[in-house]
Design goal:
alpha/beta; 8 helices; globular; single chain
Length: 230
């Protein structure tokens, strides 16, 4: 794949950073794509920029739009972010941090950019094992979107190219993901996961995303380099 372009969805978190590093390892030229969508944890965009620079992305774009206008999520609305939930509680149901149709929107932008730059490959750090029950992180959803993508673009209809959506982390635990990233030289101090950061810049340590992150570092036998409130 040396020299081929790929669009990488880059939120600035552990999963997207590791997926991007894996694409870079495989020889792709990266077009990093991030989003300012009205999320309360927009701090993640600073991390996305650092990761994109570290991986020497060919381009990095930040798309601005407002999902606060739709709401319905603890990340975009006046809804409390769940804190202190057990692993069992996190694994049950779809939490209020789910943002309606967010990954469909993200992948649609990625599809548009891929067609624009002539890339056939999109990397998406979705994960089915250690995640908070989001329906748009499942393999059946991703394969359905890929099928739709190849019916929807000019380049695919004209037979010039076909889009492939890569989800290299799909069946990995958070610990396995972190181990992989460390082997690829990623500094996870650049990344950000917390849904409800403190005003002083520390992660809360209690939201689902923080707890899954910390669990992953324990499983990987490593220490999380970012600062937590407790």
């Amino acid at each position: 794949m040396a020299g081929e372009d790929a669009v990488v969805l880059l939120s600035g978190g552990i999963d997207s950073a590791t997926a991007a590093a894996m694409a870079k390892r495989d020889g792709y030229e990266l077009h990093a794509l991030s989003f300012h969508y009205g999320q309360r944890h927009e701090r993640e965009l600073q991390s996305a920029g650092k990761v994109a620079a570290f991986l020497r992305a060919k381009t990095q774009k930040v798309i601005h739009f407002d999902l606060k206008a739709i709401g319905g999520s603890a990340l975009t609305d006046e809804i409390a972010v769940p804190k202190g939930r057990s692993e069992r509680e996190i694994s049950r149901g779809i939490p209020v941090t789910y943002v309606p149709a967010r990954n469909t929107i993200f992948l649609s932008f990625a599809l548009a950019l891929a067609e624009r730059v002539g890339a056939q490959d999109i990397f998406f750090g979705a994960n089915q094992l250690d995640y908070s029950g989001y329906p748009d992180c499942r393999d059946e959803y991703i394969r359905a979107f890929e099928k739709m993508a190849n019916l929807a673009t000019k380049s695919a209809v004209e037979g010039k190219s076909r889009v492939r959506i890569h989800t290299p982390l799909l069946q990995m635990t958070k610990g396995e993901i972190i181990k992989t990233g460390l082997q690829l030289g990623l500094d996870y101090g650049m990344t950000w996961s917390c849904y409800d950061p403190l005003e002083d810049g520390r992660a809360c340590g209690q939201c689902d995303s923080c707890r899954l992150r910390l669990k992953g570092f324990r499983e990987a036998g490593s220490i999380d380099p970012i600062a937590y409130a407790r």
